[in-house]
């Protein structure tokens, strides 16, 4: 695919880097750091948040997180640590009963892990995919609040805006919902998420896999400072995500906010000239 031509500085808030054979086998893809970097450059992306892909059930993210941090050195990647937990992310009565007995296992994220990641200058935030990795315990979330680093959340039909509000938005740290909180392609959930932005000042959304021009334009026009560009690479070629923003019927100033200014304000390591 040919590289895009545009005059914008672009940073990406949602990219996955599979650092080892276990991650590759679990996710079914093998995208090297070199290829991911090359595809980013084709799209004109100068820096990207990177976190590990899904690990096999019962496996800790500690080694995968450290591998992503190592692979980010001398590359345009900003490493985020992926978290997990023992609590069921569902919203029904069965999940509530399960969570009464949920006990943390050795492979689950602990408060000390969050503290270590927070003070390790290799990591600049956290990612969480509750529908596959579970929800952390309350003591872990409290430690996230102390760290006050952004938490990027894979939200959608299996972890809808209602669950996000109940489980996460009571804590005082920045939360970024991937795909406008409506993955996969659920416009109703995306609009519900945009409604939540009116009530929570530290809630943000990223544009990965949104696909609906009307929904994207609504988010950018109504909440110009809280929409962040995310490509969803490597599942989606970053050229695709960039083109979706460049073809919106919004001003160049708003495009520039989404593509770089908003992400850099939330994640300073994405800013121009940042030392990472």
From TrEMBL:
Pfam families to which the protein is assigned, alphabetical: Amidohydro_2
Alphabetical list of SUPFAM superfamilies matching this protein: Metallo-dependent hydrolases
Amidohydrolase-related domain residues: 121-267
Entry keywords, A to Z: Hydrolase
Top-rank taxon: Archaea
InterPro entries given in the database record: Amidohydro-rel, Metal_Hydrolase
Keyword Thylakoid included in the entry's annotation: no
Gene3D superfamilies the record matches: Metal-dependent hydrolases
Annotated GO MF terms: hydrolase activity
Name of the featured protein: Amidohydrolase 2
